[in-house]
Amino acid sequence: MRRLCHALATLLAAWFAVFGGIHAVTLEVKEGNATCIKADLSASFSITYNNNSGSSRTVSFSLPDSTTVDAESSSCGSDGGSPWLVAVFGSGHAFGLSFSRNGSLYSVANLTLQYNLSDTSVFPDANSSDVVTVVSTSVGIWAAINTTYHCVSPTSVGVGGATVTFTDMRMEAYMPGNDLSPTESVCLADQTSTTPPPTTASTTSGAPTAAPTPPGTPERGTYFVNNSNGTVCLLAHMGLQLNVSYFSRSQNKTVQELVNLTPTRTNASGSCEASRATLVLTQEQTTNLNFTFTLNSTTNRYHLSAISLLASWSDMAANLSASNSSLNYMRSTLGRSYMCNAEQTLAVRPDFSLNTFRLQVQPFGVTTDQFATAEECQMDQDQMLIPIIVGAALAGLVLIVLIAYLIGRKRSHAGYQTI
Ligand SMILES: *[C@@H]1O[C@H](CO)[C@@H](O)[C@H](O)[C@H]1NC(C)=O
Ligand SMILES: *[C@@H]1O[C@H](CO)[C@@H](O)[C@H](O)[C@H]1NC(C)=O
Ligand SMILES: *[C@@H]1O[C@H](CO)[C@@H](O)[C@H](O)[C@H]1NC(C)=O
Ligand SMILES: *[C@@H]1O[C@H](CO)[C@@H](O)[C@H](O)[C@H]1NC(C)=O
Ligand SMILES: *[C@@H]1O[C@H](CO)[C@@H](O)[C@H](O)[C@H]1NC(C)=O
Ligand SMILES: *[C@@H]1O[C@H](CO)[C@@H](O)[C@H](O)[C@H]1NC(C)=O
Ligand SMILES: *[C@@H]1O[C@H](CO)[C@@H](O)[C@H](O)[C@H]1NC(C)=O
Ligand SMILES: *[C@@H]1O[C@H](CO)[C@@H](O)[C@H](O)[C@H]1NC(C)=O
Ligand SMILES: *[C@@H]1O[C@H](CO)[C@@H](O)[C@H](O)[C@H]1NC(C)=O
Ligand SMILES: *[C@@H]1O[C@H](CO)[C@@H](O)[C@H](O)[C@H]1NC(C)=O
Ligand SMILES: *[C@@H]1O[C@H](CO)[C@@H](O)[C@H](O)[C@H]1NC(C)=O
Ligand SMILES: *[C@@H]1O[C@H](CO)[C@@H](O)[C@H](O)[C@H]1NC(C)=O
User: Fold this and answer.
1) CATH architecture group of domain 2-190
2) Which entry of 20, 79, 323, 359 is 20 to 30 Å from 341 by CA?
3) Residues with CB under 6 A from ligand 6
């Protein structure tokens, strides 16, 4: 059955390149005949907003194919300003990339995200109808002048209450010609990645190629999030298993599937703020898992407050986007890590839960690259009781046997003496 599914998945891959998966869009900023910025990229967004009942909700979606460049706002910078790429999509949503150059390097100086909370198809029940604009100046995208920035690995940028994740990005600003330079500056993440980047063209690489890893206990991965200054600010060590139900194209019915995250094929990114830390795990552009930890600065306690999953697997009839931002898992204290060796099930939505194995995380107060003292989950504490109880029972048994032996010895001694 699995083999059949795999064959079908492969057949459907080409179809998916067009209709499914996370799409690649091509964006170009021109002045007269000359192109000054060109980008081929896929992007996904994870945005937290308040709904009518006052709870915060997180939605995830990917950049649609219909995205276009806003020629009015975009600029090549010939007027003395910075080159600016502004892409618009949907109902009043946009993102902008502003570039700057310094010597032989150019970089993204800032990322602007604009989203329209009145768009109920994206933000159901939002308590506001504002158009929100947020800016981040630590984007971490740079390349040598006259080269194309190339990054297959996901790059996540925390911007306000949102996270923008770019994948499979090929981009150049200050272009010497009208097409992307053949020389590339490969991003750090791709250089250190153990998986070779896909060799397919950017238009087809959104298509999933590998069948989901068959279940079993997932391998334990080590994931970091670094500050803009390069110091580690979030540490996680865990095995993860997704339990999702979705409508299977090949079986023409809803199926329940367990999928393990494979650490060597998973990239970690995220952001750390004073009272909010996010960890984004991306497996081969088809699975995007987002954890948000929240710190209550009054009580100095933190917890896992939101999980969101974006999955576009080959057999899915529709992409799965499941999130819940009113969770209260992994409660621990600032300055401590949270640990749970036992298998833990985190229910997120009726169609999505997450199983964790041998987990240790520390989203706040990381001072060295090491975990601080751990607070263990109740299940581990209960499991520690078992050996204590067994040990106590054994000790009791040994004592009884010993007493019985001593009494027996005394008796038989006494017996010999009377003879
Ligand atoms: C654009 O290119 C055409 C032909 O290559 C040329 O005739 C025209 O003057 C150019 N326009 C500008 C604004 O450079
Ligand atoms: C607001 O969000 C919460 C949590 O996601 C949900 O339980 C509640 O039903 C939502 N309320 C409205 C009016 O949508
Ligand atoms: C939306 O809800 C948040 C949190 O409850 C509140 O702070 C904010 O004022 C509300 N906004 C509007 C426009 O009602
Ligand atoms: C925001 O969305 C609403 C509803 O879709 C739309 O009427 C409005 O024009 C949008 N605002 C902008 C600035 O595009
Ligand atoms: C340009 O780079 C040099 C050396 O890396 C640095 O000292 C300088 O501050 C940079 N200038 C700007 C405007 O970023
Ligand atoms: C973004 O960066 C550009 C170039 O450095 C700068 O001109 C612009 O003011 C910045 N915008 C914001 C909102 O910081
Ligand atoms: C980039 O290419 C242009 C045109 O080919 C050339 O004039 C310029 O000197 C190059 N710049 C660098 C930093 O190599
Ligand atoms: C984060 O920091 C750790 C330890 O300093 C390092 O091993 C890792 O490569 C860094 N990750 C990134 C994405 O820079
Ligand atoms: C790195 O930045 C964080 C906050 O952004 C700060 O707390 C920390 O001291 C910085 N570390 C270094 C070595 O600059
Ligand atoms: C997966 O989820 C389904 C539905 O919630 C549940 O019945 C099943 O036991 C779960 N399986 C595992 C291994 O967690
Ligand atoms: C899928 O199932 C439905 C109802 O069970 C049926 O009407 C439909 O023809 C099936 N489609 C395919 C492609 O088998
Ligand atoms: C922090 O915890 C206190 C006590 O539980 C609670 O009253 C307060 O609302 C919490 N603050 C936030 C920002 O959640």
Assistant:
1) Beta Barrel (2.40)
2) 323
3) 82, 98, 100, 109-110, 135, 137
* Domain locations along the chain: 2-190, 221-378
Please, are residues 327 and 346 in contact by the beta-carbon 8 Å criterion?
Answer: yes
CB 259 within 8 A of CB 241: yes
Residue nearest to atom 10 of ligand 6 (CA): 110
Average pLDDT in the 334-359 region?
94
Are 2-190 and 221-378 equal in CATH topology? yes
Indicate whether residue 127 lines ligand 3 (CB < 6 A): yes
Q: Are 5 and 212 in contact (CB under 8 A)?
A: no
Give the C-alpha separation, 37 to 114, whole Å: 20
Tens of pLDDT, residue by residue over 147-201, are 899 988 888 898 988 999 999 999 999 999 999 998 888 887 776 544 433 333 3
N- to C-terminal Cα separation, the chain: 81
Is the Cβ atom of 260 under 6 angstroms away from ligand 10? no
Contact status, residue 289 vs residue 281, Cβ threshold 8 Å = yes
Distances in whole angstroms, Cα of residue 153 to Cα of each of 62, 104, 169, 282, 401: 16, 24, 8, 8, 65
Cβ distance 94 to 87 under 8 Å?
yes
Is-contact 171 69, C-beta < 8 A? no
For residue 124, list its beta bridge partners.
none
Q: Which are the contacts of 113, defined by CB distance < 8 A and separation ≥ 6?
A: 45, 94, 95, 133, 134, 135, 159, 160, 162, 164
Instruction: Note the Cα 330 to chain centre separation in Å.
Output: 17
| Three-state DSSP class for residue 384 | helix
**Residue located nearest, by CA, to atom 14 of ligand 4:** 92
Q: Alpha-carbon distance 101 to 107, whole Å?
A: 6
Q: What residue type is assigned to position 17 of the chain? A: A
* Residue at 90: amino acid letter: G
Backbone phi and psi for residue 416, each to the nearest 5 degrees, phi listed first:
-60, -40
Helix (H) or strand (E) holding 383: helix 378-418
For residue 55, the tally of other CB atoms under 10 A from its CB is 11
What's the CATH number for 221-378? Answer: 2.40.160.110
CA–centroid distance, residue 133 to ligand 5 (Å): 28
